[in-house]
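Running co-folding for 2-deoxy-2-amino glucitol-6-phosphate.
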Amino acid sequence: MCGIVGYIGKAEAPNILIKGLRRLEYRGYDSAGIAILDEAGKMVVVKSPGKISALNEKARAEWPDALFTQAPTGIAHTRWATHGEPTENNAHPHLDESGEIALVHNGIIDNYLALRARLKDKGHHFHSETDTEVLAHLVGEFYKGDIFHAVCDALHQVEGTFGICVLATREPDRIITARRGSPIAIGVGDGESIVASDASVLLAHTQRVIYLDDNDVAIVKKDSVDIRDLDNIPVNRKIAELEMDASAAEKGGFEHFMIKEIHEQPEALSNAIRGRLDFTHGTAVLSGMGTSPRELSELGRVVMVGCGTSLHAGLVGEYAFEELADIHAEVQQAAEFRYRNPILDRRDFVVAISQSGETADTLAAVREAQQKGAFVMSLCNVVGSTIARETGRGVYLHAGPEISVASTKAFTSQVAVLLMMALKLGRGRRLSREHGLEIAKAIASIPKLVTQVLTQNAHIEELAAKYVKDEHAFYIGRGLMYPVALEGALKLKEISYIHAEGYHAAELKHGPIALISKGIPVIAVACDIPGKDKTLSNIEECRARGARILGIVTEGDTAAAARMDDFIAVPSTHHLVTPVPAVVALQLFAYHVARLRGKEIDQPRNLAKSVTVE
Ligand code: AGP
């Protein structure tokens, strides 16, 4: 997610804005920028790819010292790229055609291409690939001397999400801010006001905060905040007292980034799915794949490559591609793939799955696949990452920055995008419109399913307390539940340091069951989809040897629940979608076990968020 700061009040706005951006660095970003009104009321802008330190150096080099001590008003932004590479041109703030209005934005404008076309026809010139610049020009198009009304008129045309701050040279006594889907907090200080995309920035100035609701628009002055709706009707928003300390505020009030990101999954999944399902034709719209229906129909095999959690997402993808697209699909560990001299040709569709887009083995696998003439694309979260750039085509997750080393929202977003890719591929082959529509509806329901699982957080925390002292754990599953077992085990081992292993449930009797002794926990992923009954039999084999069974079952499946010592029930859904609610339950379980064991959750020992070396 991008970071936004707006300030109006005492002089020194540039320093205050830079400090505010630093407070937002934890969110992850790839470029930053500031717009200031100088003492003559002129708009002064500096932007830079890379870190805030680079932006600060650039501002110090380009601006007169006086600006740092005399300018009272400005807006600033850290960008997490969604539309367009992380370049200076694409960095915010963006200006309107006149250069007298500056705007920063957090969110995604779904109809920006249509708006840009209309504005181009009116003579507007664009310098970036971003949706945000279109919004700045739209505000400018409506501006007739009242920036508040111009912003409202522009936002009435917008489809999608926004948290914005707007500055106009002709109205230097105010900042306009508005939100729909992307949070905005306003700090009410003494002779100063500060606007930010999260409360951590405000703490340096005030404990008094106003949170905007969707479709609120505020006129923020140094000694007043006037909030209205998009139709200029005043709304009353109370001033709250900020209790959290700054570090807690960075995590949105959560104790760790991991639990914050687990709870962000409904929003992250909504962003991953938004605008990508076509309910008219029962298919998915993934323009980044860069494939025509004819090219899709000529593909002979799907080969996914990835590591760790991304590899597990690929295992779910195998089932989806084979069932929906009737095509052979496999996922290979990227390090293995790159050295085994893979047999590939032009009919092979190689999909590199990588949250960071920087994993060395996955990048090497991409290069190997390109060497052999395969059709290569990527599924990444970080826009402009090396793997995304080197494949030149792919689908971004739009999950927002994932800070915690243990991957959560990236995994579920990867699964959602792989399901949409399989749907698109399938509809270019033998999948009917009716069947495609059924799948599209199931995918669209994913955010709601995850929200339902998250309501069990307290129950799962209680359960976790019963497993805190265990030093070993087995995770078992079959079919689509096997990747979930592997991912659940990885989550537990990497943050709690419990020796947890995932096995195919049928594999137990081929050796691992020798390890089952009295009291050993077996986490059985036994949702009500094909293979469940066999897994229930495997559970009996474990129980007969003294194991304690914690089951992931489908809500209402009382027969399965009765076979468990403890269970977590997840909502029923299409079998291809079932891995998502099931894994969220295991994410929460792993988190609470690790937390109760007092572990350093976000930065586990020995681990890095992105393994950029072999
Ligand atoms: C998962 O929780 C781990 N952080 C790790 O397995 C990770 O998934 C793996 O290193 C791949 O990273 P990538 O998706 O950024 O390529």
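Result summary
The chain is about 35% helix and 20% strand.
The chain has three domains: 3-242, 251-444, 448-614.
Job closed.
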